[in-house]
């Protein structure tokens, strides 16, 4: 805890506290002591935590340092920042309450695990006070590849993309790190320079593996393909994931895109009809943004790509196929056509260099 009150009921930051003077928790009004060891920075700690349910004692060095650094960062941007302001209506104490020109928002600097239910409770509380909240992830969340459920839990919309926000306490530049959550060929990653030929070959191999593993959802699609005298591996290259899509879909992107193509082969569809199809798939549980918004972004990205490649068209508020798509007899036949498909993508300006 970095903020306490003195006997005059004034807020005192731990750095300004003096030994020998009594300080109290602003929430439970119980006595706190000033602590500073060789490792932890100066902070307050309850003498007895049994009657305070708004604070979590034992904060890590990372958490304490991060809150102070984030305060300094936002103050340098011209904001007014309050550390650990107690909100009695919610019985919550956000790490930072940031203010500028009447636009208040909350920063939660997260280093420890938190359940999605608890996170949602906090978000709902802040929303009841019209306080947007940004969850900023510390070092423990930067040590490894984050699972989709974790990314969804802390995701936010920033500049029209689904993103996660990080803060590195050891980075001298000290700025917010925004990482887009983009999924491509089953991997969560931000896109940079990509070998598209290898990527598409990998996706084709993964489809082949999905068939041999006999995944139930793939088997259903394969049975549908057999009835149409087609195969999963023979689906058009356009169904593959080219430049990535917003994260959140639990399954593979290609099988949902295939379902859309099959639906369009039968009849033209409105955006809402296609959105219903997409929403019926299994999606991650988002903690801070509406899953429906992510689903719309996902579908819009797919349709925008296909419109640019001129394989679908938009007419009278309906999407339909612009012509017959090329299906392949087998794995090798499709692989032999990959160079031509890459040439089509380059001509359409679809590849990232």
Rg, alpha carbons: 26 Å
Q: Helices and strands, in N-to-C order? A: EEEEEHEEEHEHEEEEEHHEHHHEEHH
Q: What is the number of beta strands?
A: 17
Structural class label: alpha+beta
Q: Name the overall outline.
A: elongated
Q: What can be said about the biggest beta sheet? A: 7 strands, mixed
Share of helical residues: 25-40%
Q: Roughly what is the average pLDDT, rounded to an integer?
A: 86
Distance between the termini: 48 Å
Strand content: 15-25%
**What are the low-pLDDT stretches, counting only 5+ consecutive residues below 50?**
189-193
Tally of alpha and pi helices: 10
Quickly list its features:
10 helices, single chain, alpha+beta, 34% helix, 353 residues, 3-stranded antiparallel beta sheet
Walkthrough of the structure:
Helix content is 34%, strand content 18%. It is built from ten helices and 17 strands. Helix 7 packs across helix 8 (291-308). It is elongated. The relative contact order is 0.08.
Task: Provide the fold topology.
Layout: E1 3-5, E2 11-13, E3 23-24, E4 31-35, E5 43-46, H1 61-76, E6 80-83, E7 96-99, E8 105-110, H2 116-128, E9 133-137, H3 148-154, E10 156-158, E11 161-166, E12 177-180, E13 182-184, E14 187-188, H4 196-212, H5 216-227, E15 245-246, H6 253-266, H7 271-279, H8 291-308, E16 312-315, E17 318-321, H9 331-335, H10 338-347
Parallel strand pairs: 8-9, 9-11
Antiparallel strand pairs: 1-2, 3-4, 4-5, 6-7, 7-8, 10-11, 11-12, 13-14, 13-15, 16-17
Helix pairs in contact: 7-8
């Amino acid at each position: 805890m970095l903020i306490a009150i003195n006997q005059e009921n004034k807020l005192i930051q731990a750095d300004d506290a003096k030994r020998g003077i009594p300080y109290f928790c602003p929430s439970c009004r119980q006595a706190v002591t000033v602590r500073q060891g060789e490792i932890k920075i100066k902070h307050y700690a309850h003498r007895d935590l049994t009657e305070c349910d708004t604070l979590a004692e034992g904060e890590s060095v990372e958490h304490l340092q991060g809150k102070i650094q984030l305060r300094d960062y936002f103050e340098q941007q011209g904001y007014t920042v309050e550390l650990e302001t107690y909100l009695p209506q919610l019985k919550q104490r956000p790490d930072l309450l940031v203010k500028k020109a009447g636009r208040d928002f909350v920063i939660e600097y997260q280093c420890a695990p938190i359940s999605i239910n608890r996170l949602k409770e906090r978000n709902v509380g802040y929303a009841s006070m019209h306080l947007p909240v940004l969850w900023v992830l510390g070092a423990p969340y930067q040590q490894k590849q984050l699972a989709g459920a974790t990314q969804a839990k802390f995701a936010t919309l920033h500049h029209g993309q689904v993103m996660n926000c990080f803060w590195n306490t050891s980075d001298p530049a000290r700025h917010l790190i925004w990482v887009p959550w983009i999924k491509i060929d089953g991997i969560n990653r931000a896109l940079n320079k990509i070998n598209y030929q290898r990527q598409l070959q990998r996706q084709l191999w993964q489809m082949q593996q999905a068939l041999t593993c006999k995944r139930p959802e793939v088997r259903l699609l394969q049975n549908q393909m057999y009835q149409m005298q087609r195969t999963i591996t023979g689906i058009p290259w356009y169904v593959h994931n080219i430049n990535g899509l917003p994260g959140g879909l639990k399954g593979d992107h290609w099988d949902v895109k295939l379902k859309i193509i099959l639906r369009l082969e039968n009849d033209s569809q409105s955006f809402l009809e296609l959105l219903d199809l997409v929403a019926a798939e299994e999606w991650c549980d988002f903690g801070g943004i509406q899953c429906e918004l992510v689903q719309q972004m996902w579908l819009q990205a797919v349709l925008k790509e296909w419109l640019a490649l001129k394989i679908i068209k938009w007419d009278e508020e309906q999407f339909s196929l612009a012509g017959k798509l090329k299906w392949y007899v087998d794995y090798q036949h499709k692989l032999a056509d990959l160079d031509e498909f890459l040439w089509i993508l380059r001509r359409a300006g679809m590849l990232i260099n």
